[in-house]
């Protein structure tokens, strides 16, 4: 038998108070961390924010519906989902409505919701609220099984565990909170920059944090002002922790007599109280810590902040501003802690990790939404199948129903006779007689076909992650277009935090590129201006089988775009190009770029600016299979170290050139079989950076595009064939056509002259270099090549021996003579070829 002591021990077991306190405290700590103080990395919301938005959605108070009393919203929040005090819930709603607290407010408030001066909001019975437009993106598709729902605190209702947010709310609005043993302090950001970062991550999962920082430049506070220095931003984005320095935005106004200055504060640091700032300045003046100030007054109104600090006569405003930065909240630090809940665990994340978690969340949401829509479509198809059976056997169905004694018997008979499901049979019984008309019967058949097509589309999406990613990117672009705005916070450089560009003085450089792919730069001043007939100075010495093919004069801060045959583009600033001796060839371009095996350079484009005023400029890319694509120069303004996709290349194709268009140019494509097509650039619509382009010319069998020319002048067109023949023809003979056609004869081709190798627009003053596969090279002045008709075979430009073939033709840099006058003006591989040759006449020239 159980003794009395044993019975008491079973009813009241002994527990170690140390273990119980430890367990209870950990339970409490995790409850605070997960359920109260920290945001979820996916939707950027704490539980109270999520519950407030969900309660407002359930009340139906969208941004285009009438306002509802805040007390009504608070009642639903604390009564249904958040069993805490009404003050805490109302304070949450108030903060979500303050434009100076959230970069993109989540509550549209009507009434007094506080101010920058620290004024409290009016009582909840006086204010009204509703959702903002951006809230529709946060709660979008909530009813399509996109997220899990969990029971509320008393199991009477369910609430979403996370919102299926289409906007990266954690970064655009930030978050702050103190949990047990940890805290988060995430600053707000500009939505355009964050979306650009997400798009870049979607395109290149291996993108680095440093590369993302070229897109997401730093926090963007709702109160504007300055951020001083980038080192704190860089540290926070790379490690999850960092400190940025914020400064008020000021300017100086001068009195009419020019003897007094006033410092005007128009923007203050984030989370600073304007009234406290004014009071602090007044105390400094009263205590004579700043003696140059005569008066301080706050002239702020509904149009914005304006604090006026009047100085005494002949006082230096710059000195006073520096004193104010040091002694008042006009300069404050913001400690960034990128801490959020990831899979029910608090984690410190870097910038890329936050974007990755949100992108994964969007993939899950889109997949679940598509699966939900597929299920609904299949249910609809199932019902329409039953209706089709009824329509196709209408008389028999009506007879069968009439003979039934009651609806259950009719339903059973339909199931047994036509092998229908109970749902299909019930739908037939519920069908109204008006659906038996001819028009309605046709509509049922049409609906069935449309649903089958929709099912196929949805199944295709579910089977291809690339399609899901494409949908996500399209949604991101829509978000950016709808809610995008300009940055408010300006990032300025600290004295000890300068970018490389800040250390480079703008200076004109002469950039030379050789035919075999070597590049260098030298100060343009090195090549001093001379009168006609001067000796010149030595540039790059001509190496055997190489010569200077292009010369550019560009600023050290300009950008060169390097396009490869695989359709990629790389960026290099001019100051990043090798600065070598005046007579050196330079450095191989392939060693400057991270090219794949067998990838080679196809074109170089110097760009001075990517600013908004250059929106009319586009880049035209041409492939050897005749495809062309025109893309806005703006698409290439954000560089990546490993390059970007500039053109999607089909298998077996490659890019042969890239050209800068100014909006009114014409383009000439030439093929190896001597065909040419000349069209206006307006025939090619502007496309995105990753598009594959459109057809520029229809090619014949064994034909390919070998040259493209942007005809920017009336100079003649030079064509050269593999057997050493060539000719110049007037540009006017290449009539303007529509793109995509077969073109016209550019040179009459025969076994004697062979395939076309290259074509260029040239003038009498230019020189060309023709190169054979044996290494033989010849340089000639084009004034010796007369202009003849377009459909002729041309004249012999170079004597070839045996099986020799011409493999390349290029123009010699027009100004090379100014750079290199000490090397006889020649660059030949064989000594028997003179610099200027006599053109051998072709007896069949006029055939």
Automatic annotation (TrEMBL):
Q: What else is known?
A: Few gyrases are as efficient as E.coli at forming negative supercoils. Not all organisms have 2 type II topoisomerases; in organisms with a single type II topoisomerase this enzyme also has to decatenate newly replicated chromosomes.
Motif placement: GyrA-box = 530-536
What does it catalyze?
ATP-dependent breakage, passage and rejoining of double-stranded DNA
What is the active site of this protein?
126 (o-(5'-phospho-dna)-tyrosine intermediate)
What is this protein for, i.e. what is its function?
A type II topoisomerase that negatively supercoils closed circular double-stranded (ds) DNA in an ATP-dependent manner to modulate DNA topology and maintain chromosomes in an underwound state. Negative supercoiling favors strand separation, and DNA replication, transcription, recombination and repair, all of which involve strand separation. Also able to catalyze the interconversion of other topological isomers of dsDNA rings, including catenanes and knotted rings. Type II topoisomerases break and join 2 DNA strands simultaneously in an ATP-dependent manner.
Which NCBIfam families has this protein been placed in? Answer: gyrA, PRK05560.1, PRK05561.1
Q: Which SMART domains match?
A: TOP4c (SM00434)
Q: Which residues form the Topo IIA-type catalytic domain?
A: 38-503
Q: What class of enzyme is it?
A: isomerase
Could you give the subunit structure recorded for this chain?
Heterotetramer, composed of two GyrA and two GyrB chains. In the heterotetramer, GyrA contains the active site tyrosine that forms a transient covalent intermediate with DNA, while GyrB binds cofactors and catalyzes ATP hydrolysis.
Q: Which CDD domains match?
A: TOP4c (cd00187)
Name of the protein in question:
DNA gyrase subunit A
A GO cellular component annotation in the UniProt record: DNA topoisomerase type II (double strand cut, ATP-hydrolyzing) complex
Underlying gene: gyrA
Source species of the chain: Desulfotalea psychrophila (strain LSv54 / DSM 12343)
Subcellular localization(s) per the UniProt record = Cytoplasm
Cite a single Pfam family from the UniProt record: DNA_gyraseA_C
